[in-house]
Amino acid sequence: EDEQIVAEIMGRRFFPDLISYKTWEGFHFAGHEIRITEATDCYGAVVWPSALVLCYFLETNTKQCNLVDKNVIEIGAGTGLVSIVASLLGAFVTATDLPELLGNLQHNVLQNTKQKCKHQPCVKELSWGVDLEKNFPRSSCHFDYIMAADVVYHHPFLDELLLTFDHLCKDDTVILWAMKFRLENENRFVDRFQTLFDLEMVSNFPSLNIALYKAMRKGRMKA
Prior knowledge:
Layout: H1 2-10, E1 13-14, E2 24-29, E3 32-37, H2 49-60, E4 71-74, H3 81-88, E5 92-97, H4 102-113, E6 122-125, H5 132-135, E7 145-149, H6 158-168, E8 174-180, H7 184-193, E9 197-205, E10 210-217
Parallel strand pairs: 4-5, 4-7, 5-6, 7-8
Antiparallel strand pairs: 1-2, 2-3, 8-10, 9-10
Helix pairs in contact: 2-3, 3-4
């Protein structure tokens, strides 16, 4: 079953027949052909398999996870694929990442959502742990979903990442988080994450070493 579903997920990716002056990859999600411009010199400007796993879940679980008119933020949006798919599924999306990635992110989001979505998504800078209250004040920012794909890897900002999850998450916010396990860092972060949030594994793909989690604040999952 793992191999069959993984084959279906990875089958959503396609490549151009002819090499053009601009490097891009194509994906089929939410009834649309999505073209993503990448930059191979930057981790945040490449589509990683965890993003495909999360997009596949969103598309195939629209009853369990109905995004229509929901307020969604993606942290570490990178190329924007997850944000684009969430937008095409009817959500109002805020796609966030570091300032140096915003140009490519904005390009991809605009190219793939303009006149195709109920709500036009927005792109906003978010450096984990920096000026959170100033840029995303708790009193006025309410997100139904926080989405993240492959945000935990070998980097020194895990404390800031956890702080960002904590700041953005209200009592009724649902976190959808796809993660590839590479090093012990990932396991340690999951343990720390669970001090603040209840965590449920939604899908597991051993052949990709990727797990998809749903999380809410402690005590809110059953409520």
